[in-house]
């Protein structure tokens, strides 16, 4: 639910892009061209275009993880849109510190939840879209021009009517057990590090601290490792657990691929317990 208030008072002149388009085709370049054709002075930052195809949950996690590191007033354009051409809404979400632009399919919800929603606008005004729209490329025809016009300073109310809610992805919460914690794999990064949904507060409640020997169960496989401060606390290709750069419990292997070793992937459950 949006809260009362004016929201972000200034724009940073930055638009970020996050998509599942890849870089083999011209889709991303064309979106950048549309933006620059409307506001040539804007700075465009590519967060990533390698989100697994149609994986909205994965993209939502990446968006949430990246937005805090950009200046206040940044416009974050995210397009992972399996429902393109369907009646799903197109949104601008103004938060306490930025603007989120994208489809209303849950993609914006994790970042919005963390940053705090001020105002939500359902984009309807065709004046701020390309004149000839394809039903299969809203990234180019709708979201890119809307983001550019927003960066030009067009007021939110010009884009459409205010809305009360956005589609929310269900929050993945760790579950405390008598002997540990059951968590979910949120993300496997390019190094094979396993990023879970467990923060340091939950770990403390589960009685785990740095230096502890822990047991991680992935399906029928069980692995032992130490809860460390950094990757180099163990030997090469040895498993470890630590609080990573996202502020979440991470299962990693020093100069190795923990996801392959545990044979796990995003969405899987892990059971983490201390070893007596």
Please provide a written account of the structure.
This protein is an alpha+beta fold and 276 residues long. The protein has two domains: 150 residues, S-adenosyl-l-methionine hydroxide adenosyltransferase, N-terminal (Rossmann fold, 3-Layer(aba) Sandwich), CATH 3.40.50; 100 residues, Beta Barrel (Elongation Factor Tu (Ef-tu), domain 3), CATH 2.40.30. The chain is 20% helix and 32% strand. The chain is built from six helices and 15 strands. The protein has a seven-stranded mixed β-sheet, with helices on both faces. A seven-stranded mixed barrel has the order 9-10-14-13-12-11-15. A hairpin with a 2-residue loop joins strand 4 and strand 5. Helix 1 packs parallel to helix 4 and helix 2 runs parallel beside helix 3. The longest helix is centred in the middle third of the chain and has 15 residues. The radius of gyration is 21 Å and the shape is elongated.
Query: Span between N and C termini?
Result: 45 Å
Low-confidence stretches: 1-6
Write down the overall mean pLDDT.
93
> How many discrete domains?
2
- How is the quaternary structure best described? single chain
Which second-level CATH architecture of the largest domain applies? 3-Layer(aba) Sandwich
CATH superfamily of the largest domain: S-adenosyl-l-methionine hydroxide adenosyltransferase, N-terminal
* Number of helical stretches of at least 4 residues: 6
| Share in β-strands | 25-35%
CATH topology of the largest domain: Rossmann fold
What form results from the Cα inertia axes?
elongated
Question: Which series of helices and strands comes N to C?
Answer: EHEHEEEHEHEEEEHEEEEHE
């Amino acid at each position: 639910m949006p809260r009362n208030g004016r929201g972000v008072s200034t724009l940073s002149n930055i638009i970020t892009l996050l998509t599942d388009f890849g870089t083999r085709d011209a889709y991303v370049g064309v979106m950048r061209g549309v933006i620059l054709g409307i506001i040539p002075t804007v700075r465009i930052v590519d967060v990533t275009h390698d989100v697994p195809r149609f994986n909205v949950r994965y993209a939502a996690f990446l968006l949430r993880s990246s937005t805090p590191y950009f200046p206040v007033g940044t416009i974050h354009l995210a397009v992972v849109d399996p429902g393109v051409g369907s009646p799903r809404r197109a949104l601008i979400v103004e938060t306490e510190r930025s603007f989120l632009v994208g489809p209303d399919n849950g993609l914006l919800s994790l970042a919005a939840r963390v940053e705090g929603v001020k105002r939500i606008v359902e984009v309807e005004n065709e004046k701020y879209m390309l004149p000839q729209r394809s039903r299969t490329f809203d990234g180019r025809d709708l979201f890119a021009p809307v983001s550019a016009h927003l960066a030009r300073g067009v007021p939110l109310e010009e884009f459409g009517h205010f809305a009360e809610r956005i589609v929310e992805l269900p929050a993945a919460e760790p579950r405390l057990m008598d002997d540990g914690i059951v968590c979910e794999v949120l993300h496997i990064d390019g190094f094979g590090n396993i990023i879970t949904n467990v923060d340091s507060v939950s770990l403390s409640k589960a009685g785990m601290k740095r230096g502890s020997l822990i047991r991680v169960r992935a399906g029928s496989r069980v692995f032992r490792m130490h809860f460390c401060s950094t990757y180099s606390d163990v030997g090469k290709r040895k498993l470890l657990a630590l609080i990573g750069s996202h502020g979440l419990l991470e299962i990693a292997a020093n100069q190795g691929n923990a996801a392959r070793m545990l044979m796990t992937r995003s969405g899987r459950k892990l059971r983490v317990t201390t070893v007596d």
